[in-house]
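Q: Got a minute? One more chain.
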Amino acid sequence: MERKNNLSSASPLVKDIVFIHGITSFGKSHIKLCEHLARKGYIFHYFDLPGHGEKQWEWKTHKFTFDDMLNFVDEYIKINIKDKPFMIMGHSMGGGIALSTYTKHKSHIAAVILECPLTPAVFVRRSQIDKNDLKNFSQKIKRTRELIKSKWMQFILGIKKWLGKDKCFAPLLADIIKGPALEKINNGIKKINVPTLLILGENDPVIPPITTSEFLKLNIKTLTIGMVKNAGHNPFKDASKQYEEFIDDFLQKINN
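A: Always. Here it is, folded:
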């Protein structure tokens, strides 16, 4: 079920924020932030992606891909946002979806908020972060795909260990890492020209914070970075006060 929450009569210039959750998660994961922003006059859109949350049973009949996630978000925006200006926000895989979605809806997106986002930086060593690395990204994707193919069983075992009881999501994660999804994310990164907030957990074991920040700084000139202390992959849980302060400061600067 798709939900919107707006509890205040305040009137920001751009009210609508479309939030996209991460793999294995669900839309209501950020309900505290939803209520916090609603009191400030924002309309926080959240939903369960295909096969997630209340829809996890759908994996019994369909093996979802990254494109399925993109199509779902695209349809949600067309129906619920239409031609209004809006901000897009994503956590983890949702950050990658937000970056990919930007390409199609950039004429209506006023700002981007990325929380521990999935980007190609996950597969790039810190010492390799430079402009040549970005130019040769397609070749790196091909090499990544070949490496995964050559070590497929190790890869599958690693996925199963990381997902734990949520093994149904393994096909989606495998689809993301094969390459085309990362290319779509990278294309979105290259096109962003609106204010963008990047929130990272300094101890994130999933999304490397330093590499990710350096990678995104190369292409997003409008980037603001908020490094959440004592936080891992879920700064909205680990340090909610500092996390909300980063978002409040960003919105106040761009939306008043």
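A: The CA atoms of residues 202 and 230 lie 7 Å apart.
Q: Perfect, thanks.
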